[in-house]
Amino acid sequence: MTKSTSPAEQLASFLAKFTPDIDALTVAILAKMRKRYPTALELVYDNYNALAIGFSPTERSSEAIFSIAVYPQWVSLFFLQANRGLPDPEKRLQGSGNVVKHIRLPQAATLDEPAVKALMLEAEAHAKVPFDPRSAHKLIIKSISEKQRPRRPAENVKSNTPAKKSVAKKAKR
User: Does the pLDDT of residue 169 top 70, yes or no?
Assistant: First the structure.
């Protein structure tokens, strides 16, 4: 990326590495998140395992409340402060960690489901630092990992399957 590339252009280029379906899903999810949290700072990390877009009241990643994580085959909403008394009566949260939990988002409309909205309201209410209604939205590219896992699902390569290799080894004996 050149220094003249805007953060929005950089984010678009990161998303373009994914399949069109995952790209479109992420764009729709981000639109809903931006509408719901118009004063949040978006902290973008193009990491080794995933593209992560944190929604934070400050530029400190430790104060982020939510994160959208984009993987080759799905997108998840992470609750980054789930240890702060986040009630989950419908057992929607996944993950075995003590601090961070997540929900897979098969569609952007999942964010509008009552149980998910309730979790998000609770997470916002219990955050270490709340969103400041006087702040302005800002998109910040925090880091770009040089080495990354593929952003698209792996193609099935039949000649490299373990069963075929072991058959080939036995045939040589």
Answer: no
